Amino acid sequence: MWLVNFLRSENFFHHYQPIVNLKTNNIEGYEALFRSHKFNNPEKAYHSAIRKKKLFELDANSIQKAVCTFLRDGPINQSEKLFINVYPSTLLNLNFAPFILQLIDHYSIPHQQIVLEIVENESIEDFSALTNVLHQLKNMGLMIAVDDFGKGADNINRTIEIDSDYIKLDRYFSIGLNGSKKKQAYVDFLVHYCARFNLKLIFEGLETERDIDCARVLGVQYAQGYAIGKPQPISQFM
Hints:
alpha/beta; TIM Barrel; eight-stranded mixed β-barrel; 9 helices
């Protein structure tokens, strides 16, 4: 019952973190990050929703609020995208496509301004079914990102099987990047992989100017992290 009340009262909000083009220093978009005063760790809210079989409801309510806040307080420039975390099972829910279309129509947000960021927290049992759903969503004009590449059991499968627009590289690769030839070689491989298949690579977790410089040297075009901007209310960036 508490979860139902939690959703009804909307005891949650979002902070937004910028994603920057390292070549032009322009904002590519903002990732909406779920927050709540009732949970010191946002993942606990989702774990509770999974136990109560209310994950779709929490995901849908979070997406709606993230879009509403972004449009109300965020950038006027429609080229700046909104990255929204979503669970694979939510995407596979038969109610998701009608929900997202209704949301887009209600708020009159351009389809291509929304990037659905598939989280790594949940295993994908049926890649075929998911790729069919994503194909449908992309045909609607929405964009797709694979989150936290390099983290999770089926992460490499996701990169190959999912026809995404963005790959977000897990922050693991940013830790000690400047002194790790192996990490640099792996990032270099991904840069060339993304260039070959027309994907945009976003390096997460960059926390120092040295990290940013190293990413630039390796040819990474997009970055996210504390060195770029800390998560905060979207209005603070305007």
